Amino acid sequence: MNQTVSDYRFKFSVVTAVYNVEPYLAEAIESILTQDIGFEESVEIILVDDGSTDRSSAICDEYQQKFPDNIKVIHKENGGAASARNTGISHCEGQYISFMDADDRLTSSTLSDVYGFFSTCDANIPFVSVPIYFFEKRDFGHRLNYKYECESSRIIDLVHEYSFIQMSASSAFFRHKIIQDRSFDTTLKYAEDAKLIMDILLDCPRYGIVPSGRYMYRTRNTLDSALNVSKHRKEWYIDSLKYYTFWALDESERRLGYVPDFVQYTIMYDLLARFRMKKFPDDVMTAHEKESFLSMLFRALQRIDDHIVIEQHNLSPELCDYLLSIKKAPDSGTLVYDADVENQYFHYSDFNSCSSASYPVFLETLDFQENALTLQAHVKIYTRFPYPSKMFLRLISGSQTQIIDCSFYENRDEGALFNGQQLSLTLYFTAIIPYDMLKSSTKVEFCMISGSNTIKFHSFRRGNEFPVTPENSRFKSGKHVFYVTLASQSLNFEPGTPVARLKHKAMHCARVIRRHI
Question: Domain named Glycosyltransferase 2-like: which ranges (predicted)?
Answer without folding.
Answer: 13-165
